[in-house]
Amino acid sequence: MTEYNPWSDARNRHDIIVGVTPLIDEQGWWLPADRVILISELQPAGVVRSAALAHQLAHVDLEGSFVVESAREGVANPSDIEAAARRLTSRRFLSLADIYDGIADTATLDGHELAAHLGVTPVVLADRIRYADDDEGAAIADVARLVEWTDTVVERWACGQHLRPLSDPHVKARSMLMVA
Q1: Closest by alpha carbon to 123, among 52, 44, 43?
Q2: What is the domain partition of the chain in residue ranges?
Q3: Topology of the domain covering 6-91
Q4: Which of 25, 84, 100, 104 is buried most, with the most CB atoms less than 10 Å from its CB?
Q5: 11 and 30 in contact (C-beta within 8 Å)?
Q6: Region of residue 77 (phi > 0: left; psi between -120 and 50: alpha; otherwise: beta)
């Protein structure tokens, strides 16, 4: 399994300061002018805070990239930066093989249980599926057909170019990801 540790990553970046503070409505902030990452203490410790830090480190790594510069110049949509950060974050935590191994190891198709087994948040797992490369197309379609979600994570995070939610009217609050 991919062994990315955002806390070690941050510790090795001597020009970055990481702090924990009570942020309202945000999991974290990257303040590029100050080279500071703030993580919300209102988020549960552990996997959620690790994902928030990894996401902010992705923003650090995207500084100076075409997508960031284009958004700052008003040419690109700022949401493109978020999509790039989420894509990078999910790839650091999970390979496609990790997801397949997790399904085999746990014999679960529940997205939340699978994410817990893989040591990531459901959002990171959903993002890894959503932001698959084109060359992963067939394999990711197989994963998308398997993983089930029991809440609105699908609608908020996994509904992208590869996936669409399908609701079963007989099973309340249950969706299955399928290839669009």
Answers
A1: 52
A2: 6-91, 95-179
A3: Zincin-like (3.30.2010)
A4: 84
A5: no
A6: beta
